[in-house]
Amino acid sequence: xxxxxxxxxxxxxxxxxxxxxxxxxxxxxxxxxxxxxxxxxxxxxxxxxxxxxxxxxxxxxxxxxxxxxxxxxxxxxxxxxxxxxxxxxxxxxxxxxxxxxxxxxxxxxxxxxxxxxxxxxxxxxxxxxxxxxxxxxxxxxxxxxxxxxxxxxxxxxxxxxxxxxxxxxxxxxxxxxxxxxxxxxxxxxxxxxxxxxxxxxxxxxxxxxxxxxxxxxxxxxxxxxxxxxxxxxxxxxxxxxxxxxxxxxxxxxxxxxxxxxxxxxxxxxxxxxxxxxxxxxxxxxxxxxxxxxxxxxxxxxxxxxxxxxxxxxxxxxxxxxxxxxxxxxxxxxxxxxxxxxxxxxxxxxxxxx
Length: 353
Description:
Elements: H1 3-9, E1 33-38, H2 53-61, E2 79-81, H3 86-107, H4 116-142, E3 146-151, H5 158-165, E4 171-176, H6 196-200, E5 206-214, H7 219-227, E6 232-236, H8 237-246, H9 251-260, E7 265-271, H10 293-305, E8 309-316, H11 326-345
Parallel strand pairs: 1-2, 1-3, 3-8, 4-5, 4-7, 5-6, 7-8
Helix pairs in contact: 2-11, 3-4, 4-5, 9-10, 10-11
């Protein structure tokens, strides 16, 4: 069956197909966008659960209504997720128990001499993950697909950013997060979730990182920002709120300033805790403050309408709750918007003015 026949035979007003991302009927071959799930949280430093995020989002996504007011034919694009990598999740589960033992010793101030082999094993496994992510995303990029990555903790997209750096000579990262993630080898882990942007700065093609919603950082990270000579631009959450509360700036003008700092090609790295924690209460490290859902969508739409192109994205740190699927529900809706607006930026979908 051709993609055209698939579209003709599917009722977008009915129930979605259980088990398919968003309940859509498309195969990987028919899809313009491929989502790569990476259930990994080996180095998380507070609460666990983000490795379950991709599965939680997949399960919640079938409840989404397909119609997007600004993009009427959004559902016809073709989006699908790669098969869930159960083997990777099991490896994550085993390594997490080792990492937890090390973190406990680290936080108690105990001697870490005996823990060095353990640390080396974790760092080696995380670099192996980076290679896996790079090779997987590169495969689909070379096939002409648009790609999004669904973590896991925020360490997961580094391999994807490396893959993009081989395809694009120069691009920026729009980083939405409560945390700056600019620590060098946080808690000794080279590829910590708290170090992903520090590691991204090592990639020459990443010419600028624009961070939005940051409200929790350490002196080391502030020093990295100051020494980056403008390569890292931060829109702190308290400054955003102060401008809004005082009436000095509205969200539209703030978005304009954010977008001006970005080059023509943009990768979006989205940690769900960049949102107000009422929208993601089970995320690994929630922080008071943050952005509203519609604020974020407004920013992404404004980015695309400015003429900038989204070359890829990641969505991380979604952790399901024990009693409901609220976090997965929010994550699924955010994922749908990211997919659609990336497609618009590549003229694969047409948005209303």
